[in-house]
Every structure is written in C-alpha cells, then in structure tokens.
Write the structure tokens for this entry.
Amino acid sequence: MMNFEWNTAMSATMVRTCSLKTEQPVWLDEFSDEWEHPFLIIDSEVRRLWDNLLQPVIISASGLYVMEAREVLKNTFTLSQIWDSMSAAGIHRDTPVAVIGGGLVCDIGAMAASTYLRGLRLMIVPTTLLCMVDACLGGKTGVNLASAKNQVGTFNPAEKILIATDFLDTLPDREFRSGIAEIIKTALIGDRSIQGLLERMDIENPDKNSILEIIRKCLEVKGGIAALDLRETGKRMLLNLGHTIGHALESASEFQLSHGEAVGLGLLGEAAIAVSLGGNRKLPGEIRRMLKQAGLPTDLNDLASGEELSLLFKRDKKTRRDGRIWVLPFDWCDCRLTHFTPDQEEKVLPFVLNLLKA
Ligand SMILES: NC(=O)c1ccc[n+]([C@@H]2O[C@H](COP(=O)([O-])OP(=O)(O)OC[C@H]3O[C@@H](n4cnc5c(N)ncnc54)[C@H](O)[C@@H]3O)[C@@H](O)[C@H]2O)c1
C-alpha cells in the first residue's frame, strides 16, 4: 500500500493504491462519496481490455468520453469534443471528472477538467507505467499544436490519484519499456537507489511490489521538486531532463518513437553534452547500459535524419531568440540548468547526432 498526500502551496493531491484483483467493491469504493457519478474520460484500449471492471463505474457515470490514445488526436479539436460531450451530459460545477488512461488521455482529460465550467474536481487513474511514475502527478495538462507538443495547457493538480498496478498486466511490452525511460530519468535527477531497484527487476516478469516501490520513489522525487515550483519557473525544469532532445526526436520520427523511447535517447544525448562541459565521463555509458537492459533504443537508426533534427531545432530557435535552458546531467543527482544561445545549440547538435547515430 502506498497512500500519501502531495501538497503544494495551492493544492493537495491524495495518492492512493488499489488492487483490482480483490473483491469488486474495493475498486468501486473509490468512486463513492464526492467521487460518485463522475464524468468519465477513458482510453479506448483500456475500455476494451477492462470492460468488465469498468462497467459498474460507467453505468453510474454522469457522462462518458472514450478516446483513442494517439498523439495526433491530442489536440484542440478533441478537447472541444470533450467539452461538447460534457455539455451534452449536462454536468454541473460539482460533477467530478475521472480520467482513466495513460499519459496522453490524462493530459487532455485533465485539461478538459481544468477548463470546463472554469474547473471541475479531478481524479486520475493512470493505466501505463509512464503515467504511474510520472505524468499522473504534478498537474501539467496539455494538448499539442501542429507545430509542437504540449503547447497549450494548464497547471491543475488532480485531487486524487488512484494507482492500480494491475492495469500493467495488459500493457504492451513496448509501452512498459517506455515507462522505464522516465524511471531512469527520475533516478538520474534525484534518487540513485532507483537504479538498483531497476537492475534487480525482471523486466519480462516484473514483481508488483518492486514496481510499486519504484513508483513511490519516482513520485517522491517528482513531487518534491514540483511542489516547490508548480508553475515551472525554475527548479521544476530539472524534470525536463531528456526532453529537449526527446521531444525533437519524437516529432522528427513522426511519433514512430514512443515518448519514453525518445526521452531515453534524449538522456543519452544530453549526458554526452554534459561530458563535453566537464560532466562525469562514465555517465553516458551507464545510461546506455540501463537503456539496453530495458530493451530501449540507444541509437537513432533511420528514424530521423540529421537534417530533420537540425530543422526542428532551428524552428524552435526562431521562437526563442535568446536560446533556451537545457537540463544536463553532470552526474547522478547532479543535473544542472544550462543556458544555450542559438549559436551554442548549433555547435551542440552535431555532437548529439554523432553519438546517437553511433
Ligand atoms: N503531464 C505530464 O506531466 C506528463 C509527463 C510525461 C508524459 N506526458 C505525456 O504522456 C503521453 C505519453 O503517455 P504514455 O506513455 O502513458 O502513453 P499513452 O497514454 O500514449 O498510451 C500508450 C498506449 O498504451 C495503451 N494503454 C494505456 N493503458 C493501457 C493498459 N493498461 N493496457 C493496455 N494498453 C494500454 C494506450 O491505448 C496507448 O495505445 C505523452 O503525450 C506525453 O506528452 C505527460
């Protein structure tokens, strides 16, 4: 069991765990009292695979929106469809919203909850490893624009997060591995003991207790940082480790790379840059070994050409004439916010590409 409260100056989030394999009422209890009759937003795959479990919640819901988890659908059009569906269901300001799915559906569902009627109470039920260890906590919501990921969004921490690792039983291998990239990221940022837990975990047949322990540690690291800087004006940027390169790779590959796979490569590239500035020389090798052990990609193959990547970085630079802040892992638990001018980025890019094409 892992029940704790995550507090920021503006909000309180209750994080609870729940087994889906015990008597059904245990799960249903989570939808009682102030969480009764929620408006539900559910990942279509989760709906299909967990229909029996979800049925009682769906039957008593105030309304339902089922969404396919595809990045191209995480946009303002889908968001307005969710709003329309909330309006058609006639929900009120006291209707809670429960979002059940991975990071994608949670991002857009939480955004719908934070904007419809100027904000409704929100429960998140993460169903992917990535969402359990990272996306469910911290309050970032968002949708993509054609030009870039997560360009429009809000900060809106859920009031309740319900973690049921049983959902991982149906998660495809590739998605499970994707979550491990975010775990490696979190270990690098703030808790090296997670590295040992990962090394001892049998990836093919993971034990639920060790997964729960890893989730707890990851949420502690993320929660500790995000609580001090909810709106990401400073220290919270550390949580973007791996994402500057990762987001560019994800877009350049036209989402053939999953979010976690791209972040894993981003960790490797950003560690190499840190080495060029005096960081621990062993770190890129250690990250590569952990990615390999998790079955995550460690090179780019043909997913994105050097030209495509250069273009993506250049396009981004136009909107940031002064350059931008990168997060560079100089060592375990020593990640530093580092400002690069556009010219400096230009010099860094070939370095990253060489490493990732190796
Ligand atoms: N808000 C944040 O802090 C934050 C942090 C990290 C990532 N994100 C966002 O999260 C998204 C990625 O999330 P993700 O990695 O969880 O993937 P996802 O939500 O895209 O889901 C991946 C796939 O797994 C399926 N799926 C989900 N749960 C399942 C289950 N239990 N069994 C079988 N299939 C299941 C989905 O239908 C989908 O096909 C990205 O859009 C990213 O931007 C947000």
Notes: The first helix runs from residue 24 to 29. The chain has a mean pLDDT of 91. The pocket of nicotinamide-adenine-dinucleotide is lined by residues 43, 45-46, 49, 69, 74, 101-105, 107, 127-128, 130-131, 134-135, 138, 140, 149-150, 167, 170-171, 175, 178, 259-260 (CB under 6 Å). The CA atoms of residues 199 and 293 lie 8 Å apart.
